[in-house]
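B., you asked whether I could sanity-check this one before it goes into the benchmark set. Here's the sequence:
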Amino acid sequence: MTKEQRPVGEALRVGAAAIPFLASLLLLGVAVQTGQALPFAIGWPALQVFGYVVAVRKARGDMGHPLVTTQIVLHWLVLALAAAVVLGAT
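And here's what the prediction gave me:
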């Protein structure tokens, strides 16, 4: 990867990490209003913050590290499973 491509890749990884986090905050707002799935809605953003902090710290700030990529993919998987549960319930 060239030096010009590296900032673009890091920006894409940060964007990919932000989408499940924002979705978890949306779910938290809905869960507070309805009272359903409240423990999951509280725990998921907390686990994301903890997971990303530890992964980036272990990777020494390298967003291209496989540990950070795994953390991003893990939260996309949780987002997909949460969406499947919500869509299956309707």
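One thing to flag: The chain has three helices and no strands. Otherwise nothing jumped out at me.
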